[in-house]
Amino acid sequence: MSALLQGAALLTTVLGLACGCLVLGRRHDVRAALGVLLEFLLAAGLLRLSDSPTYRSLATAAVIIVIRKLVTLGLRRDRRPAAPHPV
Amino acid sequence: MREMAEGATGLASIVSEDFLRNAVDLLVRLVEAAGAIVIFVGALLAAVKFARAAIGRGQNEEFVRVRLGLGRYLTLGLEFQLASDVLSTAIAPSFSEIGKLAAIAAIRTALNYFLGKEIAEERAEVQAEQQGARPSAAVAAAGTHP
Description:
- The complex is a heterodimer of chains A (87) and B (146).
- Chain A has 87 residues and is mostly helical.
- Chain A has one domain.
- Chain A has three helices and no strands.
- Chain B has 146 residues and is an all-alpha fold.
- Chain B has one domain.
- Chain B contains four helices and no strands.
- The longest helix of chain B is centred in the last third of the chain and has 50 residues.
- Chain B is elongated.
C-alpha cells in the first residue's frame, strides 16, 4: 500500500510537471501553468498524506497548501483589472 | 438477572475490543484507499484532458474547466479522507495518535473549505466571462448574417 501510494504521488508530480509545461508552451501564460502545476502538486501531497502520516509529511502537506493558497491569491489579484485612478 | 449477566458476557466475548479494533481499522483503510483512488484517477483524467485541450487548440475556458474538474475530484477525495479520519476517532489509543489525527483532520478540513471556495469563485468568473462573451458573439453573428 505504501509503495503504491508513493508511486502514485510521484506519477502525479510528473504529470503535473508535464501538464504545466504543456499549458506554458500552448498558452505562453506562466500564471496558468503555475496554477496547474500547484493543483497537481497538491494532489500528490494529499496522496502522500494518505500513507501512514508522520509529522514531517504533515508539515510538508501543510506548507504546500499554504504556498498554493498564497500563489492562488496572488494570481487572482493580478488577474483583476486595476481600478482607474482619479485625475 | 444472572441470565442477563451471562448474555452480556457472551456479547462481550463476540464483540471483543480486538475485533472492533480490527473491523474499524479495515474500514479506515478501505475508505482512505477510496479517497486516494479518487484523487489519483482525477489527476490522471485531468492530465489526459489537458493534453487533449492543448493538442486540439483548447480555449482558455477549456483549461479552466479542466482545472475546476480536478479541483472537484480533489474535494471528493478529501471528503473520503475526512470520513476515514472520523472513523479513526473510534479507536485512537495513544495521545500522540490523537494529536496526529487532529492535525490531519484540521488540514483536510481547511483545504476542503478553501478548495470549495476557489471552485465556486472560478465557476462564477467563467460564467461571467461567458455572459460577457455572448452579446459580442450575437453582434458578430448579426454582422455576418444580415
